[in-house]
Batch of 2 targets.
Target 1
Amino acid sequence: MSALSKTSEDGSIIGLEHEPAGETRHERESYLRAGHTLRSWLLTTDHKRIALLYLVSVTFFFFIGGLAAAIMRVDLLTPEADLLTNEGYNRAFTLHGVIMVWFFLIPSIPNVFGNFLIPLMIGARDLAFPRLNLLSWYIYWLGGLFTLWVLVSGGVDTGWTFYTPLSSMFAQGNVVMAATAVFIVGFSSILTGLNFIVTIHTMRAPGMHWGRLPLFVWSHYATSVILVLATPVLTVTLALIAAERLFGLGIFDPALGGDPLLYQHLFWFYSHPAVYIMVLPGLAVVSELVAAAARKPVFGYWFVAYSSIAIAAIGFLVWAHHMFVSGMSMYAGAVFSFLSLVVAVPSGIKVYNWTATLWKGHISLDPPFLFAMGFIGLFVVGGLTGLILAMLAVDVHVHDTYFVVAHFHYIMVGGTVSAYFGALHFWWPKMTGRLYPVFWGRVTAVMIFVGFNLTFFPQFILGFLGMPRRYHVYDQQFQVLHVLSSTGATILGFAYLFPLIYLLYALRHGTPASANPWDVTGLEWTVPSPPPKHNFERIPLVTRKPYDYEVEKEEQS
Amino acid sequence: MSGFLPFWPEQASAYAASVDRLVLAFSALIIVLSAPVFLLIIAFAIKYRRGKPADRSHPMNRNVWVETSWAVIPFLLILIFYVWSTQLYFGLHRPPADALEIEVVAKQWMWKFQHAGGQGEINELHVPTGTNIKLNMISQDVIHSLYLPVLRIKQDVLPGRYTTLWFNADKPGTYRMTCAEFCGTDHSVMGGSIVVQEPDGFSLWLETSATDSTLAAQGAALFRRFGCSGCHEPHSSVRAPSLAGIYGQPVALNNGTAVIADAQYIRDSILLPNAQVAAGYAPIMPTFANVATESDLIALTAYIQSLATDNSRSAPIPTNIAPEGTAP
């Protein structure tokens, strides 16, 4: 039996054990107990500990960003400006966007799960540059502190897109500070991307050739390429905004001889690929979860692997579909509309291939797999409404309306956040060594799915009816749909809080997890839960393809 | 359509109806493309649930032809809609030559509309039914976006650059008009209404809202007040090109190239006079960037446009021009 398909000593399934929850031998020898001081955490170079530092950090920012969303949803219950002032509302949605995009969505899956799992999955003892990895976390927090400073010093009112000349010459808020925060956190992304690329190229265990890499690693490779190539463009663009705002350098403001559309081109040249930075890791997680749920190899490994690369490559060529009504040439519009339809093809391949993976599988409905199926449903809706937006004549109507808001929340929140929670529920026993109550995991997965749809589906209708985004004073006719949306957001809010309770409860009182509680393949499941400090006692020799389930044994049962 | 489908927005133009047809047809396609995913995931989750006996023999793990077909066939179907929608979009960018033109200035946080007859409106736009209307729009500060949901159209309004939007409304009524591009503090209240009237009603409105002078006449007054006439009229001491008849004509430049003297060129020449200097003239004109507002520039352009082709060297001040006669 190869290293890939080795199972745990007892092979127990999650939730079936009822032993007292004392400290196990594996826990005593694990990375979690390798040093108890604060210093041993804050100066760690262990990729697993850094992943946990990120887990705590992105959770913190997720709830700050979520709080801003909650305030907005309460404000939107009525058409008048009663809870927030116009300026207050603008600051709320700007902070929501900035925090969620740069301090949660972009770092979430790569920096928590990519960090934790890539070395384990490829049979390495750490990332290629462990100290750079720690530095990236410190840079993330430096950017984070700037953002919190912006928050307490009154906020910023430009929208997360920082469109010029509003941001450079007109906005009242703390624009330079906010741009600095995003500027700084970009370096954290670049370092992480670089680290992953080098690690995946150079540190694979013997026998782990590219065709044996888990699809999780393929997607993270594609993500890292975008992080390294696109982020510097944003960095430069933000520096130019600061230069125009501070020194009156005419770059984007036509009153100074600049061109506001230049800003939009530069910004979306980063920010559209950034959408794929946010969603490719989600696709990475779901490919793993679908195979594990069905106990089958992913249907069409190479199609799914290369579709990630194709998304990353074509994703660089679609940026101006954000600009169909900006005054750009109509011929440019036609080209970018076409390319935006092309980029949907690899996403479509993934979805159809996952569906085919479930065919004749042994499908488990444990929490991670419920999250994965919820992801597929929401990602399909998000993706297909993206096609609607890529249609020029339709986009002219729904551009900058709630239709767009609903579309990208289906991808970012329905998709990426569902995948994030799926990953959390799948790898939690591996990361912490403890099982959590499966029942509450299922409840959370269903609540997130229901709450999400109730929140965001009405927004498609709002947008098609002509409700512009970033409006908190709105026409009376829209109120019913807004109330529905806020109701859904309440359910969603509680659903996001639940895991915080039962996962933390499991940390202390959960049943100890075996090395492979889900009975699935993958090198990370061959080491104890939680893994020892250096992952592998001996670097494994890989002789089999990933997802190499023993079909015959299952069929007899 | 708005009658029998709940949550369907009103339509007030043939273009809006054609966009809605595209939306409905394309939605039907994407439902066909996505339904198998939803139905099969649920069906498989039930049929092949772990521990449940089912025929699981001969599972397939790859099939290049199947995969290629579900990559290519949906894409080809979508391309049909791509052609359809792109044609509509191109049509939206080719305003008919006979359109009635209305000038629009956006600023934080109001819309200003200027009819050729001199009638000005704030946050309200009157237009006749059955007439091609072309809006020439510019912003005085940040980017705004004029959005008319009942017509299914919007266009960003940029500082420093004219953009246009055209339509032909066919259903009288008062409809919502909003700003769609985030433009600062009062973005969500930067709205108003578009009033679509039968041509008779519109003419009546034009008459009752008439001002002393047409847009071109207002421009002529500015032409004197800013001192433009001091140089650009014949027999002046300073040598400057005559502006009579130049509108819409090519102008040879100092650097050997040529431009069409459209509204954008005239506006830029007033604000940045030394950027594109007419051939044979010295770059001596001062900028009016801190003097002229966007509304002033529109009026000046209307005046220059009104100067007839070279039959009168001394710029005449036109009397009231009937709005019907102003389309180029």
Target 2
Amino acid sequence: MKVLKKLYKQIFFLLLLLLFAGHSFSQSGSDLRINEVLMDNDSNYVDDFGQRSAWIEIFNTAYNNVNIAGMYLTDDPKNPTKYLIPKGDPVTVIPQRNYIVFFADNHTTRGILHLNFDMKNSNYVALYDVNGRTLIDEINLVRQIPDISYGRLNDGSEFWGKLDKTTPKASNYTGKIVTAGEEFVKMDPYGLGMAMIAMSVVFIALMLLYLVFKNTRRLYTLDLKNLFTKEKIMIDINENQDITGEVNAAISMALYLYRSELHDHEETVLTIKKVARTYSPWSSKIYGLRNPHR
Amino acid sequence: MENSGTYLTFIAEHLNQFFSYTSFANFTFGHLIMICVGLAFIYLAIAKEYEPLLLVPIGFGILVGNIAFTPGFQIGIYESGSVLNYLYFGVLQGVYPPLIFLGIGAMTDFSALISNPKLMLVGAAAQLGIFGAYAIALFLGFSPSEAGAIGIIGGADGPTAIFLASKLAPDLLGAIAISAYSYMALVPVIQPPVMRLLTTNKERLIRMKPPRAVSKTEKIMFPIIGLLLTAFIVPSGLSLLGMLFFGNLLKESTVTKRLADTAKGPLIDIVTIIIGLTVGASTQATTFLTAKSVGIFALGAASFVIATFGGVMFVKFLNLFLKEGNKMNPLIGNAGVSAVPDSARVSQIIGLQYDKTNHLLMHAMGPNVAGVIGSAVAAGILLGFLA
């Protein structure tokens, strides 16, 4: 019984561990990140009006669309609500894992993607949530070399640096992308590692189920009050109450026959059952369409 | 006279144009081969009763998909905006397989597994076919994602195969699905020789203890604990595992009978019709008949053989540690490949051939349903590693 008690405790703590292990990710405005900034644009990205100006790229790290409308962009830490991103324009919806670029040209008449500041006198950019108080992301920059942008080395990652190429509305990582599968095969060209790891995981998953259900009857008949007390006498009440499937099948068959057999004694005896016809106005002849008007 | 000549030319031109739109003008040898395959499926389903619920829709779908046509009229399954393309969306995006799993969950009785949890390990061992086929596919030059998608055929689970192929190798989806369902139907042909080869006469006669009765509480606990344990380990298999266990809870709770009846009745029937027809139609000869498809069929057969080998040999291995009287009949090992309930039926039939009173069906159902869980877990692993 001591062993059993220990096992229950282990399972209990394992489940607790599983519950609190790791962390979850929400998918909302807080998933937006300032991804890349170009402060001095001499011969770089041109806006729809053929003009070059500083620009700020925002990246949606979530796997669903996020609408940036109603949020605020600013280059002044003391004025978080400097530029309200207007609502009602479809361009403010950023698709999953996608980008939006704002031009810091102080020309708001050119559309909602053109900000009311130009970053000539500021090295700071911040994105605030719709309440104007919750900071979503901010970055303090150093004055850059013209046409060299500063951004996250991988989209949405923690690490910032000078980027080899400016990549407005595109991934900041410009090297060769190797898929997880290709990387795996480089290390495991014959698939043996995959077979061993994957089979182990399948076994662990089903082994856990096996361990739980090996003890399941004891688990659900467990007296929790006595589990953590010193004096305890556990009686396995079910130990001698096993009923085999064959006995169950016989009982079920007997019950089935008892319920479904309509005969009183045997097949040669006629049983008369009363059949009642229930009344419904839908079938009543007096409401028929062919009755003459009165 | 001149007018009538012009008129005849006009009619001839239009008749010619009409002919160019007919299937006869666009028909190729590939279409003929695929139509023959479709007819063979229908024959096997109706005459031999091999998985008729799957092979009839798929076989007819192959006929539908291989009626040749002029592209551009939104007819074919691969043409955006066509009706078949809309229906195929659920296959490509992996919508249908979880719905089928919901129904499977609602119609599966896990009692055999709960009463003898050792059988879960047999279900795990039979997943060897997946990773065996994966390794061979890599060796043959398939890309890692393609190899993963092909390997899952060895899970002998159509919805899982479609789900994983739609994520890892959508281009091969048709071939993988057809291969998976074909070999599932051919389980009674593929498995017996492997089972006989790997077992001795003495082993085939082993009698197993009758399964104990399983309480309602245990049955209710199973889907809940099963989901938590498996999905915590492989969250990428959540849509399949979640639906499977949810369906089972609907059944076992007994308070949601209407929902369970819908899931295991009309819902699964509707989805099976659509998935079968569209998967069949996706085998359009122009896109389907390639060397890769032939390779996938060969690998599919290999994966079933390896999976059967894994299951049977694992039971023999377990028997080394089990006391006399608790030993398991290795003939139930093949059922670990899932292919519910055909592979369990094979265990029963082969078992009866050697001892007319030794019924293995109930015992084989344990690894059989464990195989469903195992293949969903394996799919989650492949998705996590290769996507």
